[in-house]
């Protein structure tokens, strides 16, 4: 079945993964390996991270909840200290691929993000992120609608808005847990580990030359 739409995650797909920054932070502070990722993964539908991405708690509450959850796993990490680590760098090769895809396919972005200004002033970053966001036909932000991946409803919302059959969609994400609902709906899924790998798989799925 021919592809009609390509749907992207934002962080870790169009930008580099924050996991490298997590590791650096843990090493510098002498924290247990992967404590931040393990805190994010524990009770991942209802933990501090999930609540913050659905805009159910404010920064202060997130800071305290994350500290308690990480402490239960072996070391206290303040949620407020994790937020600055989230700013990955844009992958120019992925932005270029997105521009080429936009010329022939519908495009969407589903991003689990944080309420506006949660990370403080990021004016410069906001500008270049805005330049990328205008390339999408539709963007769904978890903090704006109170739903986050992997809730199947967020993917359903995207295909309904784009008016496309999920079996004619490609979905890219760097987290396996977020790919599963898309795959179950019939989408072609790509787990992003690097820009080059993602582009190669996108070329195979769409038949476009993107490199």
Automatic annotation (TrEMBL):
Pfam families: Hydrolase (PF00702). Gene3D superfamilies: HAD superfamily/HAD-like, Putative phosphatase, domain 2. InterPro entries: ACAD10-like (IPR052898), HAD-like_sf (IPR036412), HAD-SF_hydro_IA (IPR006439), HAD-SF_ppase_IA/epoxid_hydro_N (IPR011945), HAD_sf (IPR023214), PGP-like_dom2 (IPR023198). CDD domains: HAD_sEH-N_like. GO terms for molecular function: hydrolase activity. The keyword Zinc does not apply. Keywords: Acetylation, Hydrolase. This is HAD family hydrolase. It comes from Bradyrhizobium manausense.
């Amino acid at each position: 079945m021919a592809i009609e739409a390509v749907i992207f995650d934002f962080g870790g797909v169009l930008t580099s993964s924050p996991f490298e920054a997590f590791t650096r932070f843990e090493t510098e502070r002498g924290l247990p390996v992967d404590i931040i990722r393990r805190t994010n993964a524990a009770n991942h539908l209802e933990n501090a991270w999930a609540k913050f991405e659905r805009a159910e708690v404010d920064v202060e509450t997130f800071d305290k909840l994350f500290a308690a959850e990480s402490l239960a796993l072996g070391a206290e990490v303040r949620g407020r200290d994790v937020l600055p680590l989230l700013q990955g760098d844009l992958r120019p090769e992925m932005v270029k691929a997105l521009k080429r895809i936009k010329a022939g396919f519908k495009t969407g972005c589903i991003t689990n993000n944080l309420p506006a200004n949660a990370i403080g002033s990021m004016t410069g970053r906001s500008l270049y992120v805005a330049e990328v966001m205008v390339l999408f036909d539709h963007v769904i932000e978890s903090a704006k609608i109170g739903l986050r991946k992997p809730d199947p409803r967020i993917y359903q919302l995207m295909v309904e808005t784009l008016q496309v059959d999920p079996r004619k969609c490609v979905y890219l994400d760097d987290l396996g847990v977020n790919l599963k609902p898309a795959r179950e709906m019939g989408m072609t899924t790509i787990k992003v580990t690097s820009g080059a790998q993602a582009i190669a798989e996108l070329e195979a799925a769409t038949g476009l030359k993107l490199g």
